[in-house]
Amino acid sequence: MEPKDKFSNQSKLYATYRPNYPDKLFNTIYQQLNCFTTALDVATGNGQIASVLANKFEKVYATDISENQLTNAIKKNNIIYKKEAAENFSFPDKSFDLITVAQAIHWFDIERFYTEVERTLKPNGIICVIGYGLLQIDEFINPILNHFYTNVIGPYWDKERKHIDTAYQSIPFPFNLIPSPQLFMEYEWTLEHFIKYLETWSGYQNFIQVNNYNPIGCSMLQDLQEYWNKDETKKIKFPLFIKLGRKI
Q1: How far apart are CA 118 and CA 122, in angstroms?
Q2: What is the pLDDT of residue 3?
């Protein structure tokens, strides 16, 4: 099965408007580690996770199937970016203290990916699978967003999106599961930022490919502008979910 590349076409948009991950997430991961020599971030995208890991680890490898994503990725001296699939690592056995994958495992051939994780994690190494669900804003914007997500874009999501909707509970995890706290990502966004974020959705891109017009039309924009002034910022809240495990 060929890996799906859903984000090359909007890699610059993705790098600018996708949310960053909170310090509490990384602190939760680091508490489980005794060694910070090498880490691997799989499906790194624009290097959001890798760039933070690079502040803690001696060396970070970061992989993605998208050349465009890697071109736009955050550069640091101790990050080595490589173009390769999640199901076929080029790394030796027992290479990594930590392997992370954020908002991407639902696109993988999961069984083959886990085989590579088992092979390349060091004894007692940690894997962290990270995802985030549909953002929420307030009582006025939420109904507009939920309608767009479910009724407008809904039929155009790839089947893998169901794993996000179940907070990755539908994805197997053959590692010793480590209890983790409930986490959230919170930001202050303008209306423009919010709309640009929606444009990074793969369901949005699929809609345009099929219908050849922008689903965020005048009607939806007017509905949003009724409750959201141009220069106003609103609090954005994403539910963050993680599966943190130790190699068996």
Answers
A1: 9
A2: 54
> Token digits for 194?
């919010």
In whole angstroms, give the CA distance from residue 186 to residue 167.
18
Residues whose CB is less than 8 angstroms from the CB of residue 142 and which lie 6 or more positions away in sequence, other chains included: 136
Domain boundaries, the chain: 11-137+159-186+238-246
Would you state the pLDDT for residue 6?
Answer: 46
CATH topology of domain 11-137+159-186+238-246: Rossmann fold (3.40.50)
Residue 238 and residue 19 in contact, taking contact as beta carbons nearer than 8 Å: yes
Instruction: Calculate the dihedral angle through the C-alpha atoms of 159, 162, 164, 166, rounding to the nearest 10 degrees.
Output: -160
In this prediction, residue 17 carries a pLDDT of 76
> What is the token pair recorded at 11?
């890699």
Helical (H) or strand (E) element with 147: helix 141-147
User: Which amino acid would we find at residue 31?
Assistant: Q
Taken in order 27, 29, 35, 36, the sign of the CA dihedral is negative
Phi/psi of residue 196, nearest 5 degrees:
-65, -35
In 10 A of CB 194, how many CB atoms? 20
* Whether residue 24 has pLDDT greater than 70: yes
Residue 116 contacts by C-beta under 8 Å, 6 or more apart in sequence? 86, 87, 88, 89
Q: What residue has token string 């948009």? A: 13
